């Protein structure tokens, strides 16, 4: 029996703070007219001080869990696609979300393929389900790009926004859900879209901060040319792999970076405007989150029905790109049940409480069990065990010393 990965839940989270082009024109030398005509963007959302990539991801995840009508313990894997993670290198945002929603059976990891991240996440989720490794995957795209923007650089700060979108994917034996996916990359274009410092090549230093190297830097014109070329081609390839053509597409949901790029991809595929979903005007480019947010809004607007064929296409830094063809398989309606919301609300509170209790228990362990309460660490019960049995490292050291003295004696 073949297995397919079907989208059964969807949800989004957007910060309430709206920043218009007019407001931006008071920060940098730009205008509403320039931004609208070059990009189609009119406004974007900006995360508040208490909103982070993980908190938006968690909200979107909770909404997707509700529409999927599942319990968090059914989730086998949490994937978060982001290039604006909660912490520099670790822990992953996915682990934070897994803990916050009490998905206690789930593995968790992040994917960074910049603005193509969601397409990579979707392909990985599909593979995990089709291979039988997982039955239920929570896939999230979440970004707080406003934290990585140089608000004095008008070529980047006008483009990006914050938000999160989440999907729940489940195994099905019906030929529905993700029918095909294609991924691609061309690292020769790596320098076109980067955050230059903060990694192993240029670790953070006072100099990198002074040089404003921790912000997004982009060669917009080159990225534009790449996007226009790749979007139509990769969508076409995904359609061919699914045995379909552009005329079979009911709704095209591309990465929302720039209206002109979307229009040129749609025209390359010969798709009329009514079969192309656009919301870049409201949110700007939310990177990994843009496609799932757009899908949620398309569903809200009644544009997605059972058996519809959808095409998702993403592109971004790397350079990286991807596309997928999805046949919609479930009713695109949300069944809100009060009792379930209440039960899940209680579950999330319990998960938070349990997480806090575990953190406290670890601290208690550290203080009373491993001996770190005493100044030299030699008085705790574990330290006593170690003295009696010898720690593994002590035993290895002793063995090495014995060997060295035997060799000395032989000489
Ligand atoms: O997810 C992937 C992320 N990246 C993208 O999708 C970006 C793709 N690229 C783009 O969307 C477009 O290249 C931009 C919107 C970034 C720029 O549009 P463009 O038509 O390629 O403009 P440009 O970079 O060629 O700049 C044209 C002019 C320049 O002035 P000069 O040199 O002609 O005098 C810029 O300095 O526009 C100027 N400019 C601005 N003017 C007012 C650049 N940014 C601004 C601005 N306001 N914000």
Structure description:
This protein has 411 residues and is of the alpha/beta class. It folds into 2 domains: 4-335, Thiolase/Chalcone synthase (Peroxisomal Thiolase, Chain A, domain 1, 3-Layer(aba) Sandwich), CATH 3.40.47; 339-410, no CATH class. The protein is 39% helix and 19% strand. It is built from 13 helices and 13 strands. The strands form 4 sheets. It has a 5-stranded mixed beta sheet with strand order 1-7-6-4-5, with helices on both faces. Strands 8-13-12-11 form a 4-stranded mixed beta sheet, sandwiched between helices. Helix 3 packs across helix 4 and helix 7 runs parallel beside helix 8 (259-269). The longest helix has 31 residues, at 338-368. The protein starts with a strand and ends with a helix. The model is unreliable at 373-378 (pLDDT under 50). Oxa(dethia)-CoA (UT7) is lined by residues 30, 34, 38-39, 115, 154-155, 158, 218, 220-221, 223-224, 227, 257-258, 285, 316.
From the alpha-carbon coordinates, what is the Rg to the nearest angstrom?
A: 25 Å
CATH superfamily of the largest domain: Thiolase/Chalcone synthase
- The number of distinct helices, counting runs of at least 4 residues, comes to 13
Overall geometric form = globular
Strand order of the largest sheet: 1-7-6-4-5
How far apart are the termini?
Answer: 69 Å
Give helix % range. 25-40%
| Strand segment count | 13
Oligomer: single chain
Predict the CATH topology of the largest domain: Peroxisomal Thiolase, Chain A, domain 1
Q: At the first level of CATH, what is the class of the largest domain? A: Alpha Beta
Question: What is the count of distinct domains?
Answer: 2
How many strands, which pairing sense, and closed or not: the largest β-sheet? 5 strands, mixed
In terms of DSSP E residues, the strand content is: 15-25%
Structural class: alpha/beta
Order of helices and strands: EEHHEHEHEHEEEEHEHEHHHEEHHH
Residue-averaged pLDDT? 91
Bound ligands, each once: oxa(dethia)-CoA
Reported CATH architecture of the largest domain: 3-Layer(aba) Sandwich
- Unreliable segments (pLDDT under 50, ≥5 consecutive)? 373-378
């Amino acid at each position: 029996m073949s297995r397919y990965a079907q989208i059964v839940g969807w949800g989004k989270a957007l910060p309430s703070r709206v920043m218009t082009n007019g407001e931006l024109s008071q920060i940098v030398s730009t205008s509403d007219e320039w931004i609208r005509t070059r990009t189609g963007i009119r406004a974007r959302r900006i995360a508040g001080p208490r909103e982070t990539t993980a908190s938006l991801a968690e909200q979107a995840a909770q909404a997707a869990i509700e529409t999927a009508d599942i319990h968090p313990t059914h989730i086998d894997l949490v994937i978060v696609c982001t290039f604006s993670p909660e912490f520099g290198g670790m822990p992953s945002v996915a682990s934070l979300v897994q803990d916050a929603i009490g998905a206690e059976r789930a593995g968790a990891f992040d994917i960074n393929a910049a603005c193509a991240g969601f397409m990579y996440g979707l392909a990985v989720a599909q593979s995990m389900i089709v291979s039988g490794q997982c039955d239920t995957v929570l896939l999230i795209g979440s970004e707080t790009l406003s934290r990585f923007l140089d608000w004095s650089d008008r070529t980047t700060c006008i483009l990006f926004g914050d938000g999160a979108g989440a999907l729940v994917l489940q195994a099905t034996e019906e030929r529905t859900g993700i029918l095909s996916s294609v991924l691609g990359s061309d690292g020769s274009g790596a320098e076109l879209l980067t955050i230059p410092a903060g990694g192993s090549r240029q670790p953070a230093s006072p100099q990198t901060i002074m040089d404003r190297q921790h912000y997004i830097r982009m060669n917009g014109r080159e990225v534009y040319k790449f996007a226009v070329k790749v979007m139509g081609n990769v969508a076409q390839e995904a359609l061919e792999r699914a045995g379909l053509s552009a005329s079979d597409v009911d709704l095209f949901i591309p990465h929302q970076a720039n209206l002109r790029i979307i229009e040129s991809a749609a025209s390359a595929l010969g798709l009329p405007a009514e079969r192309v979903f656009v919301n870049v005007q409201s949110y700007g480019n939310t990177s990994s989150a843009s496609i799932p947010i757009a899908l949620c809004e398309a569903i809200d607007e009644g544009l997605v029905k059972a058996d519809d064929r959808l095409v998702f296409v993403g592109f971004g830094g790397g350079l990286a790109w991807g596309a997928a063809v999805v046949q919609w398989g479930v009713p695109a309606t949300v069944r809100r049940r009060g009792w379930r919301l209440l039960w899940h609300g209680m579950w999330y509170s319990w998960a938070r409480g349990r997480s806090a209790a575990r953190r406290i228990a670890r601290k208690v362990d550290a203080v009373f069990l491993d001996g770190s309460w005493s100044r030299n660490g030699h008085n705790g019960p574990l330290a006593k065990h170690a003295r009696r049995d010898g720690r593994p490292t002590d035993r290895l050291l002793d063995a090495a010393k014995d060997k060295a003295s035997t060799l000395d004696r032989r000489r």
